[in-house]
Amino acid sequence: MAAPATSETRSPAGAQLGAMHDLELTALAAAGDRRAFGELARRHGSAVRALLRRMGAAPSLADDLAQDAFLAAFESIAEFRGEGAFVGWVKRIAARLYIKRWRKRAELEPVEGEDTADASDGEGDAALRIDLDGALAALTEAERVCVSLCYGAGLSHAEAAAALKAPLGTVKSHVKRGLDKLKRRLAAPGAPQTETGRRAGV
Questions:
Q1: For residues 153 and 94, is the Cβ–Cβ distance under 8 A?
Q2: How many CA atoms lie within 13 A of 199 on its CB side?
Q3: What is the pLDDT of residues 98-112, one digit of tens each?
Q4: What is the CB neighbour count within 10 angstroms for residue 131?
Q5: CATH code of the domain occupying 109-202
Q6: CATH top-level class for 19-105?
Q7: Would you kindly state where each structural domain of the chain is located, as residue ranges?
Q8: How far apart are CA 6 and CA 107, in angstroms?
């Protein structure tokens, strides 16, 4: 008698997995399909690692934290409701893992200023991303972390403040100052200055 089919043996072939939408893959992963989740990790691993590096993680640490983030995501995949992009969900997990380490050696200093920009995520072309990496490196560590949390991981200012255990006003001020510096460095002469975070996909 043939052995009963398992979630692994019922898993679609690799080519089929590659053609599936993230929501289809997360549904399979929630049913225990490790190959489906592996496709999600393959598809979005570089984006998660890039976010961590832009937050200030060394390449080796970014690799380790990204792996930890995907492991945590797999273990709690049933909690993903598809209300946003899967990659955004994993980015938030990864960002919080990095913040746990970052808080041990750094503390946000209060600064003056207000910020009214809404957190968002987006995609930019390769050249802009290269420029962005250089511009982010010129920010203070606090500015880089706050901007990356709000514009890369998709956290609201309040969520970022909670993750950092810092006053909301302090986070808003670091975001505003960081964005102002990025706009000055990234925007072409005469180009609109209000969409820098969205165009750059910090």
A1: yes
A2: 18
A3: 988 887 665 555 544
A4: 16
A5: 1.10.10.10
A6: mainly alpha
A7: 19-105, 109-202
A8: 49
